[in-house]
Amino acid sequence: MSVQPIRVSIVNQSNNPLPDYATIGSSGVDIRAFLEQPITIQPSERILVPTGIFVDIPVGYEIQIRPRSGLAIKQGITCLNTPGTIDADYRGEIKVILINLSADAQIIQPGDRIAQMVLQKVERIEWHVTEQLGATDRGSGGFGSTGV
Question: Is 35:52 a contact under the CB 8 Å cutoff?
Fold first, then answer.
């Protein structure tokens, strides 16, 4: 089965290749750090990493920034504010908030794959004000109420 791609304009001011899918079944494209030199992230430190890319997302879509599982398990580095949302009307550089959750300092090299971008369709909400919501078996139970 072939999936029809959505055309998204991109400006790449980095020296890295365009974000690309690692495999035919990948849902996200890897994005890379656009750095002049390596940066060190201390334990529990947060940093904002530039990518050098700018995109023109079609109205009705967003791009989500998500962690890379390999970076998380191997180095303890993940994305904060995840999934990060890039709205269709944003035209600035895409930057990624990373945090080092490991006990050791970690190094990000120029060109390292630091996150994934996923293009996602967005539905708009039309609120319907009411006095009562429909009943469910769960009701208002939350935070562990299902026994898990």
Answer: no
